[in-house]
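Let us work through a complete example step by step.
Step 1: write down the sequence.
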Amino acid sequence: MRGLRPDGYHEILTVYQTISLHDRLTLRLSKTSQAIRLQCSDPAIPAGHRNLVYQACKLWRQARDDRRGIEVTLEKHIPAGAGLGGGSSDAAATLLGLERLTGNRMDAHTQHRLAARLGSDVPLFLWGGRVLGCGHGEEVYPLWDLPRRPCLVVFPGFSISSAEAYRELGQRLRLTRTVRSSRMDDVGAWPRFSLEAWGPAESDFEHVVFARWPELARVKSQLIQAGAETACLTGSGSAVFAVFDSAPKLVRASKFLPAGWQIFKSMTLLREEYERELEIKN
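Step 2: predict the structure and record it as tokens.
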């Protein structure tokens, strides 16, 4: 994270990677109602206007001037508040699903504009695979995919406020009030990422999150000691992920994790695989 922009967002540079852990969405158009109805398998998640899926339906109808009602069933598997982008991926899938359902395709610019209005990390889920995020995360550039890897996601069972994490990190780094906008051609001004291979990774948020929740730091260290090619906090937390070069290493590593934490065994997804999962190819 570099600084605070004039629009109030923080300037970031990040690498996103989609994995096979996913929620399940079912979309239906209503011929008898103009309402948006959302049912969610997790009662703790709001099913009204505060839900990004609901907002995506509303925004899509406004953009396409379509007054038909929309019925959505959301089956949650991605833990909320873990920094895994579950709500954002659901919102992007909703936009793409409504396109496919109605046959009313948007151009890429309109797609991206609507996705960015829903959230900073929603546009990445229009691409999938490995994606570079700039600006406040909404400016995305597809990267070449790295080889598929088994992936372990460890969720402690509590969430971390992104707004609070940004505020604490900003205070720690004594960020300037304004920064010039970063773009793809400005990446050279940032610290280098390992874009060519899986390797060590560190999030700026780890400095503040690990200080408050040292158990997360211990889990990251345990995963690296167990043979992970890379391990890191997911966004601003609270989950920790690790990538392994073999499934047996992942299985061994999972045996040493804290009792009571949720463990998700997954795979990194190539862009082509992501597209195939969503059936978004033309």
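Step 3: interpret the result. The longest strand covers residues 24-30.
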